[in-house]
Design brief:
Blueprint (H helix, E strand, L loop, with lengths): L2 H14 L7 H4 L6 H4 L10 E5 L2 E8 L6 E8 L2 E2 L5 E8 L5 E9 L2 E4 L8 E10 L2 E10 L2 E3 L2 H6 L3 E4 L1 E17 L4 E4 L5 E5 L7 E2 L4 E6 L6 E5 L4 E6 L6 E2 L5 E4 L3 E8 L3 H4 L5 E6 L5 E14 L4 E9 L10 E18 L4 E3 L2 E8 L2 E6 L1 E5 L3 E6 L6 E5 L1 H11 L6
Antiparallel strand pairs: 1-2, 2-3, 3-4, 3-7, 5-6, 5-8, 6-7, 8-9, 10-28, 11-31, 12-21, 12-25, 13-20, 14-16, 14-19, 15-18, 16-17, 18-20, 21-24, 22-23, 22-25, 23-24, 25-30, 26-27, 27-28, 29-30
């Protein structure tokens, strides 16, 4: 039976079933092929059919149950030839000039490539077939997951690239915390002698110096006025008295030096076993997202009664005065650091078809590169395979590149 007859029978059979042939059955990829995937003639095995004179070659990429490999069938005068009668070579030129040479050898009733056709399946293809003294060559492009964006447009869109390289992946724990004044930098001021309060010159929120007058009280013992002064420099946090009231044992004022504050971090479960003094911690204000880097000073021996948590304590500098006692914060404690050969920022990652990818830029061309990923933290992820060190990848506005590729319809059309 000739190849033309085989194609006619296959077409009629599929039409009777109410569907057209789909390359995904041979590829095993499940990608949305679109119109571009059907822009070339297909052979009886679902591959690309190439014809030159009385020679024809059908080339398919087989992916069902095996790593992607080329398979080819050769025809002369529309009749199938034995695989041993032909020599087939496929040369793939990838973005950046990388060339992969696939020499196909006989297996059963077809020829098969010995090397994997690794992702992405985006390349310029040159196929050469020899049958006896006859030689035929074909060239075409199959640019999957690729688009071209002129430099001016990319810059105007905020697309930014950077070379991928080595980095550090951190084992991090996210915890919640509370800001409190530091012991020894906090004072509750009481009257030395009971008596009526005659003046309260200090106000809540006022910054006072050590020795500054806070209150004037008439002593019940001597009936003379005496002055209550600030024992430390700091900010008046509270005033618990009014003029005319009687001063007694209750505090008149609370003052704290707020130039530095404690961060009490509440640890639950396994966190309490892994987090120890000396570890670096990044503390973030919930009010405005400002972060400060510090170090855990201690892990308190007792358990917090209300929350049943273990408290780890660090100190933050409060030079700007925006860290406020009593405010909740979030913190990220780095338990361990792992140096790795290749990392990419999480901002560079996109989900493309069934892959985690980054977009590589070469000139004005951008192409999706499927990655095998390893460990990750809140900033970056380790790359185990799929990307060479030094490759320029999109680290900002990567979703715009993804959208442009999807819009262009660059398909898995081989």
């Amino acid at each position: 039976m000739s190849i033309r007859t085989i194609l006619l029978v296959a077409t009629l059979a599929l039409t009777a079933c109410g569907r057209s042939s789909s390359p995904t059955e041979e590829h095993g990829h499940g990608h949305d092929e679109g119109a571009r995937a059907e822009a070339f003639e297909r052979g009886p095995h679902g591959g690309r059919l190439l014809e030159r004179g009385n020679l024809a070659v059908e080339l398919a990429t087989h992916e069902a149950g095996v790593p992607p490999e080329f398979r080819a069938w050769v025809y002369r005068d529309d009749a199938p030839l034995a695989p041993t009668a032909a020599t087939v070579e496929v040369v793939l030129t990838r973005l950046g000039g990388v060339r992969d040479v696939h020499r196909l050898t006989p297996r059963g009733d077809y020829l098969v490539g010995s090397d994997e056709v690794y992702e992405p399946h985006s390349f310029d293809v040159e196929l050469q077939a020899r049958v006896g003294k006859d030689t035929a060559r074909w060239k075409w492009s199959s640019h999957e997951g690729r688009t071209r964006i002129p430099a001016a447009i990319a810059t105007g869109s905020g697309i930014r690239v950077a070379p991928a390289g080595p980095g550090t992946i951190r084992d991090e724990h996210d915890v919640q915390g509370l800001l409190t004044p530091i012991d020894g930098r906090h004072a509750r001021i009481v009257a030395r002698f009971p008596g009526p309060i005659r003046a309260l010159p200090a106000k809540v929120g006022e910054v006072v110096r050590a020795g500054q007058a806070l209150a004037v009280i008439e002593s019940n013992v001597s009936l003379a006025n005496y002055t209550v002064t600030a024992p430390i420099a700091g900010t008046v946090l509270a005033r618990h008295a009014s003029v005319g009231e009687l001063a007694g044992e209750a505090p008149l004022f609370e003052i704290a030096d707020l130039s530095r504050l404690w961060v009490d971090l509440h640890l639950f479960g396994g966190d309490a076993q892994h987090i120890t003094p000396g570890l670096p911690v990044v503390v973030t204000r919930l009010s405005d997202g400002v972060a400060a880097t510090t170090t855990l000073e201690s892990v308190l021996p007792a358990t917090a009664t209300a929350s049943q948590s273990t408290v780890a304590r660090a100190v933050v500098d409060n030079a700007d005065g925006n860290w406020r006692p009593g405010a909740a914060v979030r913190a990220r404690v780095t338990v361990a650091e792992h140096a790795v050969d290749l990392v990419v920022p999480l901002s560079a990652l996109q989900r493309f078809r069934d892959w985690d990818v980054v977009f590589v830029r070469i000139g004005d061309d951008y192409e999706a590169r499927p990655l095998e990923l390893g460990r990750r933290d809140g900033i970056a992820v380790e790359v185990l395979a799929g990307l060479p060190a030094g490759a320029e990848i999109v680290i900002e506005q990567s979703y715009l590149v993804k959208a442009d590729i999807e819009k262009s319809g660059a398909s898995h059309d081989h």
